[in-house]
Amino acid sequence: MNARSLMVLMLALVCGVSAAVAVSQIRPETVEVASDTTPIVAAAIDIPRGTSITADILKTMDWPKDQMPEGAITSIEEVVGRTAVIPMLQNEPLVERKIDEGLGVASLIGPGMRAFTISTPDMGSKVAGLLLPGNKVDVLWTQTQRVRSGGPNDFTGGASVSTLLQGVQVFAIDQAVEKSSGTTTELSKTKTQSVTLLVTEEQAKKLSLAQSEGTLSLALRRDDDASDTTSPIITLNDLRGVQGGPPIREGLATAASFFRDVIKANQQMMEKQLEAEAKAKAEEEARIAAEQERKEREAAEAAAPKPIEPVWVRIRTLRGRNSGQVNLQLHGRAQVSPLSGQSAVRAGDGNPSAVSMSD
Fold first, then answer.
1. For residue range 199-229, what is the model confidence (pLDDT) as tens digits?
2. How many structural domains are present in the chain?
3. Second label for 148, Cα 20 to 30 Å away, from 39, 78, 266, 344?
4. Where is the signal peptide (predicted)?
């Protein structure tokens, strides 16, 4: 290496060291400032949806005040006895929107909704164990006709199936109300004994009646499928390829429409019956009132004093050797003297209204 190259290398080294010193002097000193923290309540373990919260599944953690979640809980006593409505992971802070004041799974039921359980020993075979809480299903109703298959009153061939409800949410499978945690879900290999659905009060009545009169089964559908289609009833005759059928079968598009027609007819009949009963009751009350009024009027007439007929009294007068008589008409009580057989008027008994005299 010649002297010139050595000089260039030394110059470059001096420049590099000078630049490093300059940068270190310009850069401000980093001062670590400890942020203020406050204790908050967090999950000590994974808490599934519907869990009744107890103190042993909670813990407290120090959390920066400037990063506090909205609605964070700061005291364990505030949440003991409440229910988790949203699943929480271990070390996740508890917030108000994820817990409810109610007890148990009843707090997970929305306003105006009902949890209706369908119980059947072979439910698992019909859905192949694929159902999970939160899924959407259609409820199918299979009914076996009570009439003799092929008889004059059998329009179905012996059995029929219809779509009773569509897009119903699964609330629970057996006793589980939450999906399994993790990215994959291990399906149960045992048969499902019961499925609980979230329905309205009217839908619960339909399910109860249909379950007592036939068999209910579920068809799994996409969670984002909100379509509500009307499909005809399928009968054994349809499967057998039997053509034709009475108009009544074509008119029953779904079992739900059939129920509505029956309920409406019963309501109209009940309203007419109540109207007739109310009319008959009003007529009976009017008759009883008129009869009572007549009796009271007759009693009043019987109690009223009867008018006394005027009485004529003949009085003989003597004036010297002449005699005459006076006739008095009295409007009062007159008595006949037992001695003479003539009428005699007592003082104060009556007032004469007419007098006639004759000699």
1. 999 999 988 888 888 888 888 888 888 887 7
2. 4
3. 266
4. 1-19
Instruction: Give residues with Cβ within 8 angstroms of 240, minimum separation 6.
Output: 157
pLDDT at 118: 86
Show which of 73, 107, 141 is a domain's final residue: 107
Last residue of a domain, one of 81, 107, 133: 107
Residue 259: its pLDDT value, please?
61
- 47 and 118 in a single domain? The answer is no
Answer whether residue 2 is part of any domain. no
- Regarding whether 345 and 260 lie in a shared domain, the answer is no
pTM: 0.45
Residue ranges making up the domain that contains 352: 311-358
Pairing status of strand 136-144 against strand 311-319: unpaired
| Cα–Cα distance, 130 to 116 (Å, whole number) | 19
**Secondary element (H or E) of residue 357:** strand 352-358
Query: Is 18 part of any domain?
Result: no
Average pLDDT value for residue range 137-155: 66
- Dist CA 53 CA 58 (whole Å): 8
- Residues 197 and 127 grouped into a single domain: yes
Contacts of 345 (CB under 8 A, 6+ apart): 313, 328, 330, 332, 334
Measured distance CA(173)–CA(22) in Å, rounded: 70
Q: CA 117, CA 188: separation in Å to the nearest integer?
A: 19
